[in-house]
Prior knowledge:
Elements: H1 2-21, H2 24-27, H3 42-70, H4 76-103, E1 129-131, E2 138-140, H5 141-159, H6 169-192, H7 197-209, H8 213-228, H9 232-236, H10 244-262, H11 278-297, H12 305-333, H13 338-352, H14 361-386, H15 394-412, E3 422-424, E4 433-435, H16 439-471, H17 478-483, H18 485-490
Antiparallel strand pairs: 1-2, 3-4
Amino acid sequence: xxxxxxxxxxxxxxxxxxxxxxxxxxxxxxxxxxxxxxxxxxxxxxxxxxxxxxxxxxxxxxxxxxxxxxxxxxxxxxxxxxxxxxxxxxxxxxxxxxxxxxxxxxxxxxxxxxxxxxxxxxxxxxxxxxxxxxxxxxxxxxxxxxxxxxxxxxxxxxxxxxxxxxxxxxxxxxxxxxxxxxxxxxxxxxxxxxxxxxxxxxxxxxxxxxxxxxxxxxxxxxxxxxxxxxxxxxxxxxxxxxxxxxxxxxxxxxxxxxxxxxxxxxxxxxxxxxxxxxxxxxxxxxxxxxxxxxxxxxxxxxxxxxxxxxxxxxxxxxxxxxxxxxxxxxxxxxxxxxxxxxxxxxxxxxxxxxxxxxxxxxxxxxxxxxxxxxxxxxxxxxxxxxxxxxxxxxxxxxxxxxxxxxxxxxxxxxxxxxxxxxxxxxxxxxxxxxxxxxxxxxxxxxxxxxxxxxxxxxxxxxxxxxxxxxxxxxxxxxxxxxxxxxxxxxxxxxxxx
Length: 497
């Protein structure tokens, strides 16, 4: 025991002597380890994998059955074929160059479109990650590619409903390739491309840590460069949580232009062009509602409270719009219809899409009530007054519902109305806080985004339709239209009994 105490005393004395000889040894801290790169959370990854599958289900079979049931028997198979072909083509274009055009820096054209640095998924592997909306949180890049791919797949498929039963299949294929390349990919870039919360937060931290004027200027320039590395509509401050502009207004106005340029179906306004199977339409609408949880809640990119907010908003806005359309139609036409209620539900889903993660549940209910009533008026009174043949009401539901939702997002995001407020990543670098909100400023930003989308897609789509019409032709012959596109275009029938 004495030997052990003596040894301890001797070692302690040696250490004390060493510190007296070199005092700096007592003050030198251990070197700090470099912060580890963020690692994807398995819960977030699982949710995004599920969301991607849910959004695919919206297209096939959801949208295919919803639209298919609304056309006549002789055109059912053609609608199913068109939608399945569109989603397959868009899937391939997305991995070839679409993802790169939407979500990389486009150099001098970066305001409008990305570049080709990730064409054919160059540089992407199982270890690649992308940012979410929280500092220090990432998901695998392959998951993000798949999720955004499903948006690119369903958006051109929505357009089909506007000119159902009369467009040539070959023309539709060419239009799809051109439209997603020249209209959709740039729109996705302009609205959703930005540097991410960590890039903004790190630049803001560097600015806060700067001590002299030179370093402050350099840090401010770096922060400005990060903020400038974004799409044009994003920099305008336009809010679009899950695709009000990118998906619904974009597809809705393209469909409207298409139905005008192709002209009315033979017998429109004279013959009965009733849906052949509202049962199929009911099944399709129900699948769309379920799939829309992936669409809206999945757009949060994380499995957290904001995803739950987007989910409950998708529940209540849809129900409110279905009830709104039902009772307005009941009051004005004397009978409540299944088709009306289903159309109202889709209108609610469309309207809540841009607001899903920004509005509160009560605000979403009001949004649904308004969307259901307004879209009913557009699809009945206005459509009949103007006489255009939007076969399955793509314009009246998707474009008008998308406009209502996009504008309302600028109002309902207000914390005073139960919204979450505007995201701010710079005030407290490294974390997300609520920024200042001004109603007029935000409404102007939303209005500019709506107007730009209408012009971009409307004018661009018109040019594409015209080019196709003068080359291979847009519309089937009168004989083929009377026979039905199932046989005329595909040589088979949906039903053989």
